[in-house]
Amino acid sequence: MTDFTTQRGDGGETHQQASGDADVLTTNHGVPVSDNQNSLRAGARGPTLLEDFVLREKIFHFDHERIPERIVHARGSGAHGVFEATADISDLTRAAVFTPGETTEVFVRFSTVAGGAGSVDTPRDVRGFAVKFYTREGNWDLVGNNIPVFFIQDAIKFPDLVHAVKMEADRAYPQAGSAHDTFWDWASLMPESTHMLMWAMSDRTLPRSFRTMEGFGVHTFKLVNAAGKAQFVKFHWKPRLGLQSTIWDEALKLQAADNDYQRRDLWEAIDTGAFPQWDLGIQVFDEEFARAQPYDVQDATKLIPEEDVPVRIVGTLTLNRNPDNFFAETEQVAFLPTNVVPGIDFSNDPLLQGRLFSYLDTQKSRLGTTNFHQIPINAPRCPFANFQRDGLMQTMVPKGRANYEPNSLTAHGEDGGPRESPTRGFVTVNAASGDDEQGDKLRVRAELFADHYSQARLFFRSQTESEQAHIASSFVFELSKVGLEQVPARMVANLRNVDEDLARRVADGLAIDLPDASPTARTPVDMAPSDALSIHKNMKATLEGRAVGILFADGSDAAMLDQVIANVTGAGAKAVLVAPKIGGAKLSDGSMRKAEGQLAGTPSQLFDAVALVLSADGAALLTKEAAAVQFVMDAFGHLKAIGATDAAAPLLDKAGVERDAGITALDGAFLEAAARRFYDREPGVRMLA
User: Which segments show compositional bias classed as Polar residues (predicted)?
Assistant: First the structure.
């Protein structure tokens, strides 16, 4: 029996409101809650107000739910590096970190979001991309993800999102995945999540490596120059190796082959001197541009197409040192969106505003003390001084009596301590961030926040046919795991507002009738496709930074094996020798060649391409070895290049390989093919929605 009515708010958000004598949602102190969807703000687009005790309590309680593991982003991998500013943007910002030629130490932490610290590296999940800059003006933390948008528009919904996607409360599974009832029940009732769902169901959540994924600041921030002029900015990290993702079947098998696949990949790349690099880009625009868009730039579920505001490269990030101790550095590093430096400021994005409150509280909960900034990985590299004293685990020993200001102790020959600096200190922009930042205190959303489908449509229609098939198939897979019968149809009804073909394909894949489109709070508009949103359109045809598995066995041609290794390493890739036995095999010249991986434990999903350097006898023997057949079958099924000797043909045939442009001899054609994947092969190896 339904004990609530459902209403839609001004932003299209779902309000489930108690009827009659039904239980009413309250705070922990019994105060009834009138609106559980919107924070209290000064005007529709104004800042979130600190007096909002409903938001404060909800976020406060959420921040303390886990000790000491992070509630989200628990499983992470980190590395040290440097950021070098390469462009003069002093007209935009006074931040010293952007002084041309300035080199700044950084610590970067990559992470999955939903799983616990003991989960795996390769689920379908958003990846965190958090960068701590140790600038000479203090720490700046750019705390983002590998996706430029998010599920929600208002921070008050963050606990609900995470509760829904985490393990179900009564059974503690599934771990690190969204393919279950509670997530899709929540998502299907939250139209604002639709754009993010398109990204989440795409290959963006299956990155090949941390080194081949983009990073985004997600929110709209501000850059402020020396004269106090402010402009809006979006931050982008562009990988030097280009974009690269796995496919779903491959990700599943990677999880079985190596739970630490991406952690190991990052560590080994740095350890061998193949330092990962990203270019930092900015999209800068003013209030006039913002007002002219059919979306609100302070809405975290929206992006700004690069075709409208090109990304300008302003610096380069290089990761060049692995942590000395995982716990002391990667686990104890504390990122705070409130860590900004003079020249960088916040917008009124209501999701960002909530994060500005939440993170400081979270770090105290996790690390047990307000003095967490004294932990070496969190301590600024520049001098810092204030009058904050004592507290749990205080490690500094301030001298003298000056623990307050103003004071006149210097006039009496004592150290009076530090003082404020109007010229050097951080000053927030003393100007409104847009229209409507005034008036009554309201729990509302700005008008343009109500469009939840236009950018989801933009994203889907910007993908290649293969990528669209992967998105449709991902929705089918995830929704097929949902046991709540109303949820799949409700989700497909939302998808009809994105793209009719997508909705039809998902409905067909689930074998359900195509439902009517769900009502929209604001009519979607068509936006021009953006190539920047596609992985396939931004992949680089290169072997640099990638890995090639070379399968050999007794009788393999020694000279050919050496030549293949030389060709692969010469192209910038890592050559990994795989044999039936870890001790290696006896080659055609009588020499023994040791393997780096034993066949049964080194499947082809660990590599970007494979080479089969086999003799006739070796190939005949391996046709009777299931691991060898699976090695080749998976490489073909995962759309990778396979280079092979003529003698390896029986193994190719046993694995069901059909010759195409990705099946080559072990010559220059293999190197060319190995630099990419063959997505036109996919319809022949699996059924897609």
Answer: 1-40
